[in-house]
Structure formats: structure tokens, C-alpha cells
Model the fold of this input.
Amino acid sequence: MGTTRLNRRLRAPRAVVYRALLSAEAVQQWMVPDSMTSHVHSFDAREGGAFRISLTYDVPTTVGKTSARTDTFHGRFVKLVPDTAVVQVLEFETDDPAMRGEMTITYTLADAGDGTDLTGVHENLPPGMSPADNELGWSMSIDKLAKLVEKR
Done:
């Protein structure tokens, strides 16, 4: 089980970043790597609330986790600390045993001058997921989050 960690300084207040982590509309815009589109099926942003999201590759591929072109995952919000932390647990909807298992994603936010330091930790990656690939996709997503919150 692998772990990836990302640190990013965002030029936006913590409250703005926190809201973007918990808004279905914002998540659909930023929580998607390049060359993919996102569809938020459900999103109940409260402790214990559930979500379900599909990411679809823009061009046909054979690397999808749920189907040839799609990665669908569902999960729940475990802990929400306003303007400070979001902890969620998720798992892919897949028949591939190497891609099964619950992963934990923890976002922590801290004041940083005129912005926010975001630390993201993605724990318990399934054995079939490359930490390097996960870090690349997650980095693309965080780049989109930065653009979204910094344009306010």
C-alpha cells in the first residue's frame, strides 16, 4: 500500500480553499486529471456524508479502473474541520482485485502569508496503483484547484 504527499501554496484564503474542497460544482471542475472529464453523481459534504464520482478518459483507453474509459469511485467524509482539514475515505468501483481497497485522502490547510498552504496525503493506495501515476494525476488536479481558487 503506497502513499503520496503533495504540498502547494495557493494564493487564496483558507476559507475559499476549504469551500472548493467541499463544493460538488468545484470538485467537478478541479478533481480531475488532464485528458479526463468528471461527473459528480452524488456529493453530501458533511461528516458521514457520501459521494460518488466518475472520471472518464477523453480518448478510448484500456487503463480505466471501472471500465475501459472510466474510473468510478465512491466514499465518505470522515472528518471536517472548518477551514482547516478534510478527511475522506474512498474506493474504486472495480472488479480488479489489485485496485480494490479503501484509500484515505487528508487535506490540511494552514495560513501562509497572503494565501494558504495545502498539504494533501493520499494513503493506502491499492497495490495496482503506481504512486508516481497517482502523484501525477493528483498534481494535475491540484493545479486546477489553484486556478479555481486563485481567480476569485
Remarks:
- The chain has three helices and seven strands.
- Strands lie at 2-10, 36-43, 50-57, 70-81, 85-92, 103-112, 115-125.
- Residues 2-150 form a domain with the Alpha-D-Glucose-1,6-Bisphosphate; Chain A, domain 4 fold (CATH 3.30.530.20).
- Residues 131-150 form the longest helix (20 residues).
